[in-house]
């Protein structure tokens, strides 16, 4: 168990080169911060303009992409300074985002994952996600790891492992009970998953959770 800023309405979580990047939501208080993955302490952060509701983030080389919920705008930022470089528009909502090394993978709250060019943000493909033949909707925060896409499902304690080639769910993680009962007061839903580089472990947290958890997913 690791500390997490309880004021953070977590929308995106990612570790790169020893830095934990976190994007948060809510209009008027959405931020992107870079911090220490062990202490959770922020090294620096930037605030989105008040009219934007921040969503998922991902690192692509020396840049970071940050989605917005209903504003249809993605922010491209300099990774070292978090300074805004440009804004790119997209249709529909923005929820989760990750980078598989070649493409951006984006969720919008539906059962669809959209693939985008990491330089232009242009759509280059999409896939519908199914679990045993049924659509999986409300796909939220994403993490690309090991050729697979891990997805929080909004409002649930489940994390799905998705094969991006066909959209099939290949494993389901049950994170129910992860947050101790004494920390439940004021905490919102599970959301936030970051692969720990060089390991088979992940950091996971939730909106307004006081803790992050370093975990390994194992068969039941």
UniProtKB/TrEMBL annotation:
It comes from the Bacteria. Signal peptide: none annotated. Keywords: Transferase. GO terms for molecular function: glutaminyl-peptide cyclotransferase activity. This is Glutamine cyclotransferase. It comes from Saccharopolyspora flava.
